[in-house]
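Narrative progress, year one. The postdoctoral researcher (J.K.) led the effort to move from monomer predictions toward full complexes, under supervision of the PI. The following entry was the first complex the group processed end to end, covering 486 residues in total.
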Amino acid sequence: MKIKIKAFASVREAFGFDEKELTVSEGIAVKDIVRQITKSYQPARDREMTLLYSINEEYCQDDALLSEGDRLAIFPPVSGG
Amino acid sequence: MKIKIKAFASVREAFGFDEKELTVSEGIAVKDIVRQITKSYQPARDREMTLLYSINEEYCQDDALLSEGDRLAIFPPVSGG
Amino acid sequence: MMRSCQKATGWPYSRPSAADKRNSMISIVLQQEAIDTSCIIGETGTDADGAVVSFIGRVRSSSRGKTVLTMEYETYGEMARKQLQKIVEEATARWSLTDCTVVHRYGSVAIGEASIVIAAASPHRDEAFQAVRFIIDTVKDKVPIWKKEFYSDGSSWINGKE
Amino acid sequence: MMRSCQKATGWPYSRPSAADKRNSMISIVLQQEAIDTSCIIGETGTDADGAVVSFIGRVRSSSRGKTVLTMEYETYGEMARKQLQKIVEEATARWSLTDCTVVHRYGSVAIGEASIVIAAASPHRDEAFQAVRFIIDTVKDKVPIWKKEFYSDGSSWINGKE
């Protein structure tokens, strides 16, 4: 199935992309996708960043499962205001 | 000795004056002056108002003593803001 | 510290104080004219301040079930300024404000108009929030100002806190 | 509820909500342009409101000992608006606000400029104070916006609360 991944701020810079489409197996969890991404992006793994996740603009935990067409976002702790 | 008395808001209306000079005996206390005023101003006594006092623009209790030239103010609980 | 937006109206009041020595700015104004709220809030704070908290007290159209047509504020000017200065100096020292302005009106104030504006600036937000809350609470408790509400069928002094 | 001062800039966002049913007004805006602070604060509140409390968050010239030249805010727009709406709806319901506006900037924000403005109106002051404090604290905790500080010798993302 296809999902969309977005990355923001320091995570975006570490991953080297702000948005991409990925083809993944049905029922995959957020953490599996993150593991796959950080494997190919050495700098991200080295930083040992705290990561936050959202699916379709709602916060989720890293064991949340993804469905076809979902928008997964990965980002560092927020610092707005 | 001479002192100046000011009255504000509902107290001013009850007393019927906003400022007047009074000749009083040396070392008189605030409460003695108030007793004297409320005696001659029947409406004020009837209302049984809570009164606050200041001498020379600083809050004081009703047993505070007055000196020549002092400015005594008598007023109800404040309601600004 | 006289600011451009206060030059036209009001009564800027300042005197040497403990706060001034630490380069804090304090402005206390009692005025009969309408308050230029935007100007006061907009001019409070410096580049070192991350937070500006403000409180605007406005005259409400209803009070304890009655329709208010207008409000009259009476003040004991000399004492009110002294008390306000004392309150703001205490807040400035306690919460390390860099800048604080309080403007209170007297005389007739129309419904919806501001009767008081308080603006405080500090590097971090917690201080400014606490200071503004302290100032408005203490003003309502200590500063010799009284309001009289006018209704279609009479008027009433408000004595003490509602 | 579109207000005159927001027509020119920004991105007014509103949808039917529990709050709307009680005749509360909620405005959430994310914008790249400078925030017209005065206009937002001045237009918040009705004749029934005795209190308007506002918070202005500004970019500081120094941060943890370093001189900041400028600040860049990145936002996950769709999610930030959803989160802001949720936070303001919760505050509006919890403290019975009649009117609440939150404007947050993104992109480059200069020193001294406002990055966020929150204004809340309520009949009595306690509610407005508590609501504004809750909103800024929750925004800093939950809304997907990140800032990057630029210094003379580099830049740094700020992750999480300072």
